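Sequence decides. Our protein:
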Amino acid sequence: MTTRTIGFWAALSMTLIACGAPEVATEGGGDDGEIATAAQEIEGFTFDARELATAPAARLPAARLTLRSFDDALIQRSLIGADQQFTPLSELGRRTEHESADWTYEKDPSNGQVLVLRKTPSGPRISPDEALLQRNALARLNSWGIPNDEIGAVVQRRTLREDQDGTAASAPEVHRYKTFVFRAVNGVRVQGHRAVVTHTLDGTFNRALIRWPAIASTGHRLRTALTAPEIERRAVEALSAEGERGGSVRLRWKYVATPLTSGEVTLTLTVGAILGTGATPSGVTEEPREVDIDVAAP
């Protein structure tokens, strides 16, 4: 018998993109009404620039994750919540692996990454309150050092599993509960930074996969002097350079992180140009293409 774990990753990718940044009001915030309409066609591209109507605040939250959260004692006590003796298993550069009776974890402070795995099996299946699992996941991340000021979209999902014997497959059933937590500053997502907290069918914390580097105190580029029409013209140039010739494009703010040797990152305000809806002519849903637009003033 073969067991396959399946997840609706294509649909999930679309959900994550949709949840990457909050909706921005279209009233006010424009330059003399330059964003009076939701979409404007330029050289074959139709832009939806509503999310650019108001630029994000050019400041960092006072409470931020720090490098201290990657200390072994904090990972063991606050993230895992285990009162056990951990033994070092391996070390490669700043990447280390530790193990206890019930847990293993790997960390790489240079990349802001932590992977936690429970070694022991879960208990009998129940029907846990998924809203409670989400709250528990957020509380665990808060305890480890991620403040609410750095948390943006939160998505709760189930992964499914089916057993296959020969050519016959059983009906898919719930395998794990996952909480996806996306990093955001000033209400704008930070590209590539997220935490995924997994619970088993009995509601037990089972796994955490985190990429959440500490944000440096200085060295950021958090503002732009460009207007929305100027950004759209840059988007045309960038999209054309990538071989695109036209279509509907949604523009949104985001931060791109640049790693430092300390393990911290600096943030640069950028605009993401998202093409189309992600649906192919055959009806298969896939993640839409996104091109980064440099919005630094000339």
User: Anything to note?
Assistant: Confidence is low (pLDDT under 50) at residues 1-38. Residues 15 and 127 are 24 Å apart (CA to CA). The first strand starts at residue 2 and ends at 6.
